[in-house]
Amino acid sequence: MMDFSKPPHASETETHSQRHHEREQQLVSGGGKGIWWEISNWLILAGILVVLFLLFKYVF
């Protein structure tokens, strides 16, 4: 049976905020993957933009 005394999505919001808090803690402590994951994502994005720029510069 469902417990109707508490709001329907209380557990979901709790786990979401908890996950968010854990991720913040990981970034603050410089926890292994966190910061390098961000850097690699930005490098990949920059690489794609450079390739597009060169493509447009030399093709058109």
Record keyword descriptors for this entry:
about 60 residues; mainly alpha; 2 helices; about 0% strand; elongated
Describe the structure.
This protein has 60 residues and is mainly alpha-helical. It has a domain of 28 residues. It has two helices and no strands. Keywords: Membrane, Transmembrane, Transmembrane helix.
Query: What do the pLDDT scores average to?
Result: 75
* H/I helix tally: 2
Q: How many β strands by DSSP?
A: 0
Fraction in helix: over 70%
**Rounded Rg:** 21 Å
Q: Class by helix and strand content?
A: mainly alpha
> Could you spell the SSE succession in H and E letters?
HH
- In terms of quaternary structure, the protein is single chain
Give the CA-based shape.
elongated
Main beta sheet strand tally, sense and closure: none
Uncertain segments: none
Distance between the termini: 65 Å
Question: What proportion of the residues form beta strands (DSSP E)?
Answer: under 5%
Keywords: Membrane, Transmembrane, Transmembrane helix
